[in-house]
Every structure is written in C-alpha cells, then in structure tokens.
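[step 3/7] fold_predict: job queued, chain A
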Amino acid sequence: MTNKLRVMIAEDHQTVREGIKLLVNSQPDMEIVGEVNDGEEVLKEVQRLSPDIVVMDISMPGMNGLKATKKLRVLYPDLKVLTLTRHTDDAYLQQLIEAGASGYVLKQSAPTELIRAIHSIVEGNSYIDPAMTNKLFGGYTGRSVLNGEKKIKLTNREEEVLRMIAWGYSNKEIAHRMNLSVKTVEAHKANAIKKLNFTSRIDIVRYAILQGWLEDN
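[step 4/7] structure written:
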C-alpha cells in the first residue's frame, strides 16, 4: 500500500477543522496528520510532523495565514500551502499568491473543490477556486495580450519560466529545474513581463489561467 498524503490543518474554528478532517480522512489516499489554530503553532508543527501540504486559513489569532505562508515558503520550500478562506476579495488572492501559496479555495464552495485542489497541488500544479476566476478577470483592464489586439510571442524559455512562476516555484527552484542560473531565469522573467506589459505576479496567474496552465494534468 502506498503512503498516504500527509495533510495538516491550520484553522482556528473547531467546527471547520472537524469538517475538513472528516472529508480528508474519508479519502483513500490522504490523511490528517495534525491540526493547529494559529500561525505560530503551524510553524512548530510542520517541523515536527513534516506534512506534504498545509490547508491554511487566512484569519487566525496571533500570526495570520498570510504571514505564516510567507515564513513556510522560506523555511520549507517544498511544502505546499493551500489557502482555505471565506474571503472572495481578489486582493487576498493576490497577497497569498505573492506569499507563495499554491492554491486558493473558498470555504463556501463544494467539499469536492478542496479535494480537487489538494490533488492538483501535490501533482505540481497551482489551483484557484473556479468561483474566483471570474473575479480575477472581472476588473481586469484588458491588456493587449488578453484582449486580442495583438499577438505577443514569447520564447519557449520565457513561457516555461512564466508557467513555473504561476505554479508557485521561486526563481531559485526554477533555475534548478531548468538547469539555468538564477540570473538567467530572472532575465527570461523580465523579458516576458515586459513583452506582456505585466506589473505583478497576479497578472502572470491571470495569463496562466487563460492559457490553461493551471488545469489538472
């Protein structure tokens, strides 16, 4: 029997934690290995339990989910973080993406959405709740690359770098995977961003959604 996926919950509401535990533990390929109710505690428990993925709430007492995600990305770059929240404001989504979260799921979505997101993330993809996709583009100003005014041509390397950025990899991780120097990765990223007239990582994620890069393999 293969090892089950090790999942940790960081959520300060016990009722929500219990619901997630029942859902995850009912899956044949995953199990809850730990649960915490604040950001400081999740840092300690990740070190002790070595989970594969942390399901992280944003609003928690003490250190919130955003700060905890930033610290986890630095301390444990291979650890996956899935944000689970009621916040539908895309400002929260942008902050979590910048912090290094691999996915964003709404608590009010169907339970199957959480399981789908966990599977997608551990396979190396990013995942954004479909309910957030329309919001991502709803207020988008429609830069030329997205509204079809002209076709932007990226090199294969530039596209590959953007794809990995959208999936949540750091420049250092991308350099290792592509067998390039960090400076070369940064150059490809800068060239692509300039061509596409992007200003932030959230623009890259929007583009990745349109290209189908975040869909399950």
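[step 5/7] annotate
The chain is about 55% helix and 15% strand.
Residues 48 and 75 are 13 Å apart (CA to CA).
exit 0
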